[in-house]
Amino acid sequence: MLEVGINTNNECGKDAREILTNIKDAGFKNVMVAFKVGKAEEILKIATELGLNVPFVHLSASNNLWAKGKENEWFMATLKEQIELTAKYKIPAAVLHATHGRAEQLALPPSEFGLNCFSELVQFAKNLNVRLALENLDKPSIKHFKYVMENIKDKNLGFCYDAGHHQLYLPNVDLLKKYGDRIIAIHMHDNLMDWEEGYDWTRDLHMLPFDGKIDYNKVIKKLAATNYKNVIMLEVHKNSGSDQIYDEMSNLEFLKEAKKRGEKLADMLENARSKKTLNIFHYTT
Q1: 40-49 and 16-25 helices cross at what angle (nearest 10)?
Q2: How far is 199 from 202, CA to CA, in rounded Å?
Q3: Which tens digit of pLDDT belongs to each residue from 18-28?
């Protein structure tokens, strides 16, 4: 059976050590370390100490790859430091955003300057045996995502498929059909699929799978047609954005339930690949 994992920024603890300890106690073997500037190595050290596997990390996000000047230079240096840490801990891949923030905070339009920055990072990571996976975000930023993916064909730049973002913002665009042959990493989470033009990112709830309105039978069927064989990675938030529906659960209860949901997704994917009929799945606790 495919293994499951969870993000470190899941809000299930007061600090990195408590969160990672809770993740291990819940039965997870895999984590996606979400880097915070200045804390990246601390988190990796604790994960290693606890015996947790890190199949891929999540690099810091900013709009500064598209803008010239000191902020760009600083952010490029920050990303390179994080990629070097990824290599130091022998982690094979890192997830990267093309943009960051609300629609009104979006980066400058796609440009050759920004593309050159991404190309430089891809080559830098390649030299360290780290692959980069560009994540699909919201609808306003899709032009930046496509511009990078379609202009950098290097095998060292792949795709991080975020199912929650896809179904919330671009449900009628078949991202897996277009980019599935480049898939390196995935993010699984749920939402109410209620984003409309003019809304910001606050409907991106990052709920546990099967608590929202995403049809995961449909998602899994599409994913099964790709060659993805890495960890089924949950990217969920216990508190922020989830309308406080998990307030009555302890951190450990939430993480144990998350593991059950991830295992169900893994089972669904294996069934789909074995060409068994997928029954409509209604989750009950």
Answers
A1: 30
A2: 8
A3: 999 999 999 99
